[in-house]
Amino acid sequence: MRRQSGEVFGVISEFRKHPGQAALMALISLFLFIFLVVPVVQVVFVAFLDAGTGEFTLLNFKDFFNTALFRESFWNSIYVGVMSVVLASAFAMPLAYFTSRFEFRGAVIIQGLGIIPLIMPPFVGAVAMMMLFGRNGSVNLLLEEYFGINIPFMEGLNGVIFVESLHYFPFILINLSAALHNIDRAMEESAQNLGCSGLRLYRRIVLPLAMPGYMAGASLVFLKVFDDLGTPLLLNVNSMLAPQAYLRIASIGIKDPMGYVISVILVVIALASMWLATLALRGKDYATVQKGGGGLAKRRMRPIEMAFAWVIVVFIMALVLAPHFGLTLLSFGTIWSYSVVPDAFTLNHFRAIFAETPEYMTNTVLYSGLAALIDVVLGTAIAYIVLRTKLAGRQWLDYLAMSAVAIPGLVIGIGYLRAFYDIEVPGLGGQAFGTWWVAIVIALAIRRLPYALRACSAALQQVSVSLEESAESLGANKMKTVYRIVVPLMAGGILAGFVTSFATAAVELGMTLMLVSKHSDGPLAYGIYVYMQSAAGRGPGAALGIFAVLVVGLCTFLSHLFVDRRQRKLGMTQAK
Amino acid sequence: MTTSQQQAGRATAVGVTIENVNLSFGKTHVLKGIDLKIEPGEFFAFLGPSGCGKTTLLRLIAGFETAQSGRVVIGGSDVAHLPPWRRNVGMVFQSYALWPHMTVRKNVAFGLEERRVPRAEINRRVDAALETVGLKEYADRRPSQLSGGQQQRVALARTIVIEPQVLLLDEPLSNLDAKLRVQMRRELRQLQRKLSLTTIFVTHDQEEANTTSDRIAVIDNGIVQQVGSPTELYDNPANLFVANFLGVANVVPGAVASEAGRLVFKSDDGAVRVPIGETGRAASHIVFRPQNLLIRPADAPVPERMTRLAGTVDHAEFLGGVVRYRVAVGGHFVLVDAAHQRGEGAMGEGAPVNLFLNDDLIIGLTQ
Amino acid sequence: MKRFTWKSGVALLAAGFAAGVLATPGPAFALEDKVVIVTSFPKDLTGPYKKAFEAKFPGTTVEILQKNTAAAVTYLQETAKGNTVDLMWASAPDAFEVLKKAGMLTKYAPKAQGIPEKVGSYPIHDPDGYYMGFAASGYGIMWNTRYLTGKNLPVAKEWDDLKKAIYFGHVGMSSPSRSGTTHLTVETVLQGEGWDKGWATWKEISGNFKMVTERSFGVPEGVNSGDFGIGLVIDFFGFSSKATGFPVEFVYPTVTTLVPANIGIVKNPPHGQAAEAFVEYLLSVEGQQLLLDPAIQRLPVNPATYAKAPEGFPNPFNDKSIGAAVKFDVDKSGARYNIVNSLFDVLFTYRLADLTAATKAIHAADAALAGKSNEKAAGLIKEARALLDKMPISEAEAIDDKYPGVFTSDVFKDRKKADTKVPPRQAEIEEKWDAFALANYKAAKDKAEQALALLK
User: Fold this and answer.
1) CA distance to partner chain A, nearest, from residue B294 (Å)
2) A47 touches chain C (CB under 8 A)
3) Distance between CA atoms of A509 and A527, rounded to whole angstroms?
4) Do B93 and A469 touch (CB under 8 A)?
5) At what angle do helices A258-281 and A394-403 cross, to 10 degrees?
6) Among A67, A414, A514, whose Cβ lies nearest the Cβ of C427?
């Protein structure tokens, strides 16, 4: 019946009929064009220029595929991406299974695990992981002492896969859990009724139904790992595409077009993987069709199962919290060198950061807050245009906004410098836009827009169209309806989008490093990086990192509480 | 729209006229040349199977759809170019569409707030509306804390509180259980009388339409099949669809022939032969209702002036008040209802029977 | 900090009397409200200067922008049109040479007195007057004492020590294309030992590398945390790590160069007066004194400053053994700057796994040969080593200008004026070098394995 009540507007002359909507769409498109398309094109076109003559050429791409090193980097990047998905799935699947299938008291912990890794700046995590899992880190020192073995967790590509999968597995966990949660219980019961149960039931009914969620998460993990620069750079792995691009672009002298060619290839592969995931799932997005069936039937675990589940959860939790644990040791430790734990403990590092660098904290809250605000405003508007209007090309607006997820931060950073360094901001006395802190905010907003957009779209999809129509028929115009009905009902999703954008923007480094034009404009991630570049700064840097994790974690936790309470009050079930 | 105009709208109910409306979604032609005139103060039903276009027509009146051609006139003015929020048309949704983030009181006050009604008056009118639907003590609850019937009433109160020119009800009873449905449809009817509000009711349930409406438009496949009062539609269906959709009907295909100066309708196999009036000259089918037949054992006396059809009982169903027989007459099955008398057993399968049909109650249909 | 304010006050007075002129512009001068500095130096170095300068010139804020040297140069080039930066402050003279050639620096003659012309064999200030040296640094070997004890390794004090098989997998260094000072070190050895022998030394040392770090600080970071035991670092990384309390030591090998770390005024500085004031402050006795801060530990260029230095602090103006072995030729270094970087990355950084695998095989064969006499095996090992050490181009070929438009960036020249003759692309050349290195490393490994097989 709902089929009749929604999404039906006339098709022709939509633009003339809804000038307000059309203007909004034009405005957003213009924003994305200036701050996403232009900078990216600025970088991409260099890849098509002959370095000698400045003429258009495809030779650079031929060079790319002729060079053994690049081919090797290409396959290494693909390998690391795929293996990270595999390892991340190994972390995420049992956790999602426990929460969806059983009455498990660890569910709260698992939900926590779904966000904790994301709020740790990955490069800080890598430093801490080296201290714990490095060749001479705590674990290996202990293993060597007691068993005489040394396991190369962190060597080469293995290290990258290890760190990346620990950092990004929440993407799979969150999406898979949501998909499992959205499966109508009747689906499972009718299968049981027809004689299907146990693992067979899982294979034939549950997994196919949860597949779209899993694929969405897995493709995101692949994409992020494929593009990630910070982790391989900190682990000194350079035979991958992202570091190759960075090293070639950021070094003096080696300003050949190959860095840009690699950037183009990164973007193309990322877009292709997104497209493939969409293609594979075309017409299979059952989970959203079924209306809130309350998830699968849950049962109590037997004691032995419970023990087994706890062992796995604790093991994964230990791995997930390892960077945080390492960072905590670093921040309180005096000297930590070739030993299992630091020599002694002190509060001096925390004293140092509170005395010296409050601006990092205020900048972070300001930048990430503004960026997340821009994201949810844009995300809500785009979701509304896509789901509630019939404007021509609205789907492309969605694709454009989502494509930002496939653009490496490095490309955005360089693109911004290129595109905006000589554009003066009026009224700021010759301040160039590219070096103004607002450029960092906008770049962060563009980078994190896909997260907020997906959250807003999901929230809007759950608001029945008839709730809007009833407001309209009672006299509220479109704007009023959005303001009084749509936005309040989407509040949970919007907040979730805000938090995701905020938390991930707060730990962004690569692009920030390119765009920060003066110390006093630097956010926390930049501050940590700067601290970590000197011997005496390792402790304070780690303390700043702990601070960042606490601030972002606290914001996230509070907003989760808020969303939860609100949903319960409204009697609405909303899949996160 | 000012408050005084709205109040004026209440005092004198307005009519709704739909002229030659065509509407397509892409390639699907949903409404095909609809013409309807709904009188002021009338309780009017759109009746039809799901997918017939009735809800689309209702949404068109509310302003949620745009027709490719035709006019919708409410109270004398063409509303085609007015957005939903300027039409002053109240709609109750099938799902009630109560806003979960607002209390009952806030839900009901919403439309008045949008009309910038002073706060004191809002309170007074919201209280009155909740009183009308009997939910005054639930004003501070949230929709999720109410039962289905209560939610339905809140949706109704929310709509009538703005004193709309026209009240639109989209399958408002479909989410209620059977008993509540009967109770609510009476309440709806009473409320509509009290407010003398032009009301359009969409339903696929003929019983609901019959019990509430002054007139019904039967819609199928995007076309208005017939408009009339419930009894008119039942007694004089304009076509086979209406005949079949309203109540149970026996339909026999065949042709009219002239025999001995009288017109006779003969089924294709000749088993059914009934005289038919001049109006039925072109009939290709005849229709008669199960309760318009008498059933007698083959050996019982023949009543006068009635057409006899001979057959055998194929199946009998006890429905409580009546026994419904399926009788094989040649190659046709004819349904016959016989009032059940206490202690009387039904005729057994295979029993030879005569059916007697009052010629005046035979309806000849050309399509 | 208090200690320094008091000391610097005395020092300022002393300098003022001694020179008879006021070396630094006094607070009475009206400076702009800020001075913007892009620097590769860590907060430990920039922080004290920012504090001291702002205290001395109230009303002028020091804005610091931290980037690594290469990124800083890129940043200045990309933002040249809308320049907001007054000063470039970094170690590597090469980076300043690049900026100078691109016409992105302003000429300035410092007024500060008492600074000699040279430190070691390297001129302190740019002879053309575009940038000024303010501290001397030399490259050396840093090691983690716990690590060496734990792994039972001896201390390495000369470059040649690092070639030894016992250090296999225990050494780390940054890449010259990422770290200006690393470039100087590579170049120092090349000039000290000659092109072929120099590269052979680097091949043999690099064969023992655990990693080539992407950031110059990656090396002290690795040594400090014990990820690897020995690092090739610039002196102040060693000094400051030790001063922070890490169990590390630092030593200058015989073949090293002392080079100045520099500051230069950017072309069209938005705050010119403040920029000059900052340069003068840096070179003043007061400013020089700050270099002795335990977290900074760089060698001042004003010899007078050493009077206040802590015990054991090296003084290159007294101890002539530091950095005197090589006469560093800036012109030669500049002429092949890009090629050396590129060669190193192609042959070492990106092919480290192949290089170390070959080295490991040679070490194994060497060990098996020890105490035996097997001429054939010895010959194979020698061949293997020769293959490993082989370079794709000779010293005569290694001049940037021989590859016009290949290694120089598009920013430095106008493309339109490029020769009509189309030069080979950098990627093409590097691919050749890469293939060359890969084949030779593989062949060297095979030969060493053959030798080992013979010895079994």
Assistant:
1) 42
2) no
3) 10
4) yes
5) 130
6) A67
Catalogue all structural domains in chain B, each as residue range(s) with its CATH number: 3-244 (3.40.50.300), 248-365 (2.40.50.140)
Q: Tens digit of pLDDT for each residue in A202-221? A: 777 777 778 878 888 888 89
DSSP states of B57-113: HHHHHHTSS--SEEEEEETTEE-TTS-GGGS-EEEE-TT----TTS-HHHHHHHHHH
Q: How many CB pairs under 8 A join A and B?
A: 111
Counting CB pairs under 8 A, whether chains B and A reach 3 or more, is yes
| Domain residue ranges of chain A, discontinuous segments joined by + | 27-57+347-576, 72-346
Regarding whether C448 and C304 lie in a shared domain, the answer is: no
Q: How far is B142 from chain A (nearest CA, A)?
A: 7
* Distance, CA of C413 to CA of C44 (rounded, Å): 37
Contact A465, A473 (CB under 8 A): no
Nearest-by-Cβ selection for B56 from A4, A472, A481: A4
**B89 interfacial to chain A (CB closer than 8 Å):** yes
Nearest by CB to A535, from C68, C241, C428: name it. C241
Q: Which amino acid is at A520?
A: S
CB-nearest to C70 from A236, A252, A431 is A252
Q: Closest-CA residue in chain A for B68?
A: A10
Beta strands C248-251; C230-234: pairing state = unpaired
> Is the pLDDT assigned to residue C420 strictly greater than 70?
no
The Cα of A4 is separated from the nearest Cα of chain B by a number of Å equal to 7
User: Is residue C194 in a domain?
Assistant: no
pTM of the complete model: 0.76
Would you say C349 and C278 are in contact if contact means Cβ atoms under 8 Å apart? no
CB contact under 8 A, C146 and A236: no
Candidates A149, A282, A168; CA nearest to A230 is A168
Task: Tell me the nearest-neighbour CA distance from A292 into chain B, angstroms.
Answer: 15
Count of domains for chain C: 2
C346 and C293 in a single domain? The answer is no
- What ipTM is given for this predicted complex? 0.76
CB contact under 8 A, A52 and C405: yes
Q: Are strands B77-78 and B69-74 parallel, antiparallel or unpaired?
A: antiparallel
| Assigned domain for C129 exists | yes
Residue A37 DSSP code: I
Low-confidence ranges of chain A (pLDDT < 70): 1-17, 51-53, 184-187, 189-191, 195, 197-198, 250-256, 281-297, 299, 356-357, 427-431, 519, 567-576
* Contact yes or no for A252 and C349 at CB 8 A: no
Specify the amino acid at residue B77. Answer: S
Check pLDDT > 80 for residue C431.
Answer: yes
Q: Right CATH number for A72-346 from 1.10.3720.10, 2.60.40.10, 1.10.1740.10, 3.40.50.720? A: 1.10.3720.10
Query: What span, in angstroms and rounded, lies between the C-alpha atoms of A387 and B224?
Result: 32
pLDDT bracket for residue C439 (50, 70, 90): very high
Chains C and B touching, counted as 3 or more CB pairs less than 8 Å apart: no
Query: Is there a domain that residue C269 lies in?
Result: yes
Contact B114 A475 (CB under 8 A): yes
The verdict on C39 touching A (C-beta cutoff 8 Å) is: no
Mean pLDDT of the B232-246 span: 90
With a cut of 60, say whether residue C6 has pLDDT above it. Answer: no
Residue C280: count of CB within 10 angstroms of its CB: 19
Q: Does C183 reside within a domain?
A: no
Instruction: Summarize pLDDT for C117-172 with one digit per residue, the tens.
Output: 888 777 888 888 999 999 988 888 999 999 999 889 999 988 889 999 999 999 99
Residues of A in contact with B50 (CB under 8 A): 1
Q: Which CATH number fits domain A27-57+347-576: 1.20.1050.90, 1.10.10.10, 1.10.3720.10, 3.30.1330.10?
A: 1.10.3720.10
Flag whether residue A197 sits within 8 Å of chain C, measured between CB atoms.
no
Q: Are residues C273 and C397 in the same domain?
A: no
- Domain containing residue C394: 336-456
Establish if B85 touches chain A: CB-CB under 8 angstroms: yes
